[in-house]
């Protein structure tokens, strides 16, 4: 069973996304901050990190850099609800060693699961 770590400071969003993945056959865990997510990732060893970009404290892009470095096999999808962030997210993501999925919120569960399945298929 593939493991997904869902990270969003909006608890309703995070819990809903976790439920979507759990109901779709994934083992899903939730974190509500970048710091909490990094601690969880070190023990949970997710196959996929689904991460909001804009969060208080450390943002999702800082978390992505940490996870990419510490857990090189983990695939990543970032979510943003701010279209003004898209250019910056795309630029920073393009500098990473492997592709990062980028979705805007709100997104349909089918689109999210399709992107997750696609990016997990690239795992080596």
What does the model show?
The radius of gyration is 13 Å and the shape is globular. β3 (48-52), α3 and β4 form a beta-alpha-beta unit. The mean pLDDT is 88. The chain has one domain (3-121): Response regulator (Rossmann fold, 3-Layer(aba) Sandwich). Strands 2-1-3-4-5 form a 5-stranded parallel β-sheet, with helices on both faces. The protein has helices spanning 11-23, 34-44, 60-70, 86-94, 109-121, and strands spanning 3-7, 27-31, 48-52, 75-80, 101-104. It has 124 residues and is α/β, with parallel strands linked by helices. 33% of the residues are buried.
Question: What is the secondary structure topology, with strand pairs?
Answer:
Blueprint: E1 3-7, H1 11-23, E2 27-31, H2 34-44, E3 48-52, H3 60-70, E4 75-80, H4 86-94, E5 101-104, H5 109-121
Parallel strand pairs: 1-2, 1-3, 3-4, 4-5
Helix pairs in contact: 2-3
Keywords for this structure?
46% helix, 124 residues, alpha/beta, single chain, five-stranded parallel β-sheet, 5 helices
Please state the second-level CATH architecture: 3-Layer(aba) Sandwich
CATH topology: the name is: Rossmann fold
**What structural class do the secondary elements suggest?**
alpha/beta
Strand count:
5
Morphology: globular
**Number of helical elements:** 5
Radius of gyration: 13 Å
What is the end-to-end distance?
16 Å
**Structural domain tally:** 1
| Proportion of strand residues | 15-25%
Biggest β-sheet: strands ordered side by side in the sheet: 2-1-3-4-5
| Contiguous uncertain segments of 5+ residues | none
Main beta sheet: 5 strands, parallel
Output the CATH class name.
Alpha Beta
Mean residue pLDDT: 88
How do the SSEs run, as a string of H and E? EHEHEHEHEH
Query: What's the name of the CATH homologous superfamily?
Result: Response regulator
**DSSP helix fraction:** 40-55%
């Amino acid at each position: 069973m593939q493991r997904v770590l869902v990270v969003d400071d909006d608890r309703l969003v995070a819990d809903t996304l976790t439920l979507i993945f759990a109901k779709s056959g994934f083992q899903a865990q939730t974190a509500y901050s970048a710091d909490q997510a990094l601690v969880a990732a070190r023990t949970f060893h997710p196959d996929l990190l689904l991460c909001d970009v804009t969060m208080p404290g450390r943002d999702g892009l800082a978390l992505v850099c940490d996870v990419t470095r510490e857990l090189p096999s983990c695939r990543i999808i970032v979510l943003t609800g701010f279209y003004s962030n898209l250019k910056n997210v795309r630029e920073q993501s393009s500098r990473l060693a492997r592709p990062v999925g980028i979705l805007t919120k709100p997104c349909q569960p089918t689109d999210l699961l399709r992107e997750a399945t696609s990016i997990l298929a690239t795992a080596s």
